[in-house]
Amino acid sequence: MRVSWILYFSMQKESKIKLLNNWLEEIWEEIEIQFFGIIGALLFFILIYLFFHPTCMKPVIDFFHNIKIPH
Q1: How many CA atoms lie within 13 A of 57 on its CB side?
Q2: Percent of the chain with pLDDT strictly greater than 90
């Protein structure tokens, strides 16, 4: 019985602030993964277009050329 009490008191529970901090770090890590994934996909398609100029991407490029940006 005495050993179990010693083990119980030697194990420290994590504080709520530390748990919240871990939770926020996990969320931020997921946001970073999504951000870098989107940037990587965009760069991949830009490089494919620059190297090979596929005809299937011509309508997309024309769309961006025709956008009128007001000054």
Answers
A1: 11
A2: 32
